[in-house]
């Protein structure tokens, strides 16, 4: 709750207690005055009683309303009510019925507003007022209540509980209304949270798809060359850090330009797409394949030495050689590939590593194609 909302609710609280305080202290004046008449109290005491009964409610209202924290100021006013009420008890010589009526009225106010905690504070404030009254007036105990005292207390005993009940009832209605509003707000917040969650999920999915689109070659569904150098750096760093082997396979389709020119780009794209599928089927989970450019492809084999890498490369070469393409009815064609493979040398430059394997691939082509060439 921000300061503006707190002040607004505090002012409503102050306003709600204004009328009950005027009525309660006015009726309390009648109760106490019935005893003062009998005891012949001096004029200064009457002035104090009148100020408490008819001036103090307005002072309490305006000071609380102008306070920085109206709610806290009104709680303080309730404790002042209790303190002033405690003063009148010894001045009434502890007359039983008026004293009990005043104590009951003040306790009802405190417990209806602040529960047991404020009730206890209010009792302590009454006790402090009572001690001050004894100090000022002395200890003079006459507990008997006359008919005048009874008649003077009847309005307070009959009317004030009804007023407190009405205020409490109104507070209950307001609380129920606030609860309904909070339930609606809670439902709205839950719906908004669900929509926000869905939007976040959609955003994550969109980011994932966009990332995949940015690193995946659309034709072969292998990674593209842009992602190759990112991942190659990761694998080289891992190989250097943990002293692990790393093999790189460079493969190039043989006579692909002639195949493309003879049968058309659609058949050429079909061959490249099928090659991407074959490569994926031949790799292990930690391996990764990339379309380097045109009909050139690179395969990274982490934690793999050249002899084991040759097995993987030969599997790719053999499986793809089995593929038959039918560019025209009743006629089939197949493609072969030349492959170079080498192992990463510790602290070697990444570009030099790729260049070495590229040269091995060209050695395979120059040696007759459809074969694998590796360093001795």
Describe this structure in words.
There is one protein chain. By secondary structure, the protein is α/β, with parallel strands linked by helices. It has two domains: 3-186, no CATH class; 223-374, Reverse transcriptase/Diguanylate cyclase domain (Alpha-Beta Plaits, 2-Layer Sandwich). It has ten helices and eight strands. The protein has helices spanning 3-39, 43-65, 70-91, 96-137, 147-215, 225-242, 256-263, 265-282, 306-321, 350-366; strands spanning 223-224, 246-253, 288-293, 296-302, 325-328, 331-333, 337-343, 372-374. The strands form two sheets. The chain has a six-stranded mixed sheet, with helices on both faces. Strand 3 (288-293) and strand 4 (296-302) form a beta hairpin. The chain is rod-shaped and about 135 Å long. The relative contact order is 0.07.
What's the arrangement of secondary structure elements?
Blueprint: H1 3-39, H2 43-65, H3 70-91, H4 96-137, H5 147-215, E1 223-224, H6 225-242, E2 246-253, H7 256-263, H8 265-282, E3 288-293, E4 296-302, H9 306-321, E5 325-328, E6 331-333, E7 337-343, H10 350-366, E8 372-374
Parallel strand pairs: 1-3, 7-8
Antiparallel strand pairs: 2-4, 2-7, 3-4, 5-6
Helix pairs in contact: 1-2, 1-3, 1-4, 1-5, 2-3, 3-4, 4-5, 7-8, 8-9
Unreliable runs: none
The total count of strands amounts to: 8
Mean pLDDT equals 88
Q: Give the domain tally.
A: 2
Instruction: Please report which band the strand proportion falls in: under 5%, 5-15%, 15-25%, 25-35%, 35-45% or over 45%.
Output: 5-15%
Oligomer: single chain
* Estimated structural class: alpha/beta
Using only CA atoms, what is the Rg?
A: 47 Å
Determine the fraction of residues in helical runs and give it as a percent range. over 70%
Shape: rod-shaped
Strand order within the widest sheet? Answer: 1-3-4-2-7-8
Tally the helices: 10
Order of helices and strands: HHHHHEHEHHEEHEEEHE
Distance between the amino and carboxyl termini: 77 Å
Largest sheet: 6 strands, mixed
């Amino acid at each position: 709750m921000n300061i503006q909302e707190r002040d607004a609710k505090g002012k409503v609280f102050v306003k709600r207690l204004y009328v009950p305080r005027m009525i309660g202290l006015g009726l309390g004046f009648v109760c106490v005055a019935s005893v003062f008449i009998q005891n012949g109290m001096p004029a200064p005491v009457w002035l104090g009683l009148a100020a408490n009964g008819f001036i103090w409610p307005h002072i309490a209202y305006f000071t609380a309303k102008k306070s920085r924290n109206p709610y806290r100021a009104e709680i303080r006013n309730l404790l002042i009510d209790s303190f002033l009420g405690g003063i009148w008890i010894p001045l009434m010589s502890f007359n039983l019925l008026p004293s009990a009526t005043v104590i009951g009225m003040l306790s009802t106010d405190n417990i209806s507003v602040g529960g047991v905690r404020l009730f206890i504070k209010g009792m302590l404030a009454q006790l402090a007022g009572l001690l001050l009254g004894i100090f000022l007036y002395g200890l003079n105990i006459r507990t008997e209540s006359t008919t005048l005292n009874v008649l003077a207390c009847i309005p307070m005993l009959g009317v004030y509980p009804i007023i407190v009940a009405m205020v409490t009832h109104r507070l209950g209605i307001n609380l129920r209304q606030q609860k309904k509003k909070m339930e609606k707000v809670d439902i709205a917040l839950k719906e908004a949270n669900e929509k926000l969650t869905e939007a976040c999920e959609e955003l994550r999915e969109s980011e994932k798809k966009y990332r995949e689109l940015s690193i995946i070659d659309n034709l072969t569904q292998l990674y593209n060359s842009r992602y190759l150098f990112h991942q190659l750096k990761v694998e080289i760093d891992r190989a250097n850090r943990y002293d692990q082997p790393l093999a790189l396979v460079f493969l190039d389709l043989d006579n692909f330009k002639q195949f493309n020119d003879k049968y058309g780009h659609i058949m050429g794209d079909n061959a490249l797409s099928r090659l991407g599928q074959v490569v994926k089927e031949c790799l292990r989970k930690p391996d990764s394949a990339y379309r380097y450019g045109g009909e050139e492809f690179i395969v990274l084999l982490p934690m793999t030495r050249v002899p084991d890498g040759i097995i993987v490369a030969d599997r790719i070469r053999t499986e793809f050689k089995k593929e038959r393409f039918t560019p025209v009815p009743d006629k089939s064609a197949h493609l072969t590939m030349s492959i170079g493979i080498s192992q990463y040398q510790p602290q070697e430059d990444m570009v030099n590593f790729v260049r070495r394997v590229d040269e091995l691939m060209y050695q395979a082509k120059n040696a007759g194609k459809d074969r694998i060439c590796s360093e001795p």
